[in-house]
């Protein structure tokens, strides 16, 4: 559009009428010109442990979670426990819970979110922490965006973010790898590769382990990484037994091993 007083504006003193596409009341237009669906996919965090729900989930998110009647969940059992915590307004057995697995077919996911086209609201929850972050729920979010639906993230606990915040390691460049190989030799090689990556890019490396193997992972970290590499152990985040400590590998070797048995733990390290 030309500015008032420019040669173009003087020449075309009568503006040319334009066709305007009206969005339906309460809606908006997609880039292609069609009306966007009014359904909403709510991304609702769940607890990392057994702490009271009001200590980690805001009141408005609890109220929203309590009234939804359809969920897509990584684990139906933990989803039902979460619904009891937030005080679901309808009987749990009347709430639809679709169990999401890494191998769930995309056509099934599309079927689950089809009610969004009619303006429905659906909750997405992980087994622990924030959905769609290192979690198969990302596929559901992607399909919701493809369908033009609203995606609403809610505030809540994320072990990755909380651990990174509390580690004192680089919070601008970081990578979360999930699980390291189970085989001891392969695990040691992978940790050394990640350490090289950390040194090259000044990048914090993060990983988790099955809780009963935490002790073995800690031992492999001490045996595989350089003495001046800093290692953070973030155990049982947001729970009464939360414990977080960052030291060099050399310092960790000098003291007693932390108690990590059967407790959710995030391991973070940054090479010097």
Automatic annotation (TrEMBL):
Keywords: Methyltransferase, Transferase
GO biological process: methylation
Alphabetized Gene3D superfamilies for the sequence: Cobalt-precorrin-4 Transmethylase, Domain 1, Methyltransferase, Cobalt-precorrin-4 Transmethylase, Domain 2
Residue numbers spanned by region Disordered: 1-34
One Gene Ontology MF term: methyltransferase activity
Cited InterPro entries: 4pyrrol_Methylase_sf (IPR035996), 4pyrrole_Mease_sub1 (IPR014777), 4pyrrole_Mease_sub2 (IPR014776), rRNA_ssu_MeTfrase_I (IPR008189)
PANTHER family, per the entry: RIBOSOMAL RNA SMALL SUBUNIT METHYLTRANSFERASE I, SAM-DEPENDENT METHYLTRANSFERASE
Annotated protein name in UniProt: Tetrapyrrole methylase family protein
Organism: plant metagenome
Lineage of source species: unclassified sequences, metagenomes, organismal metagenomes
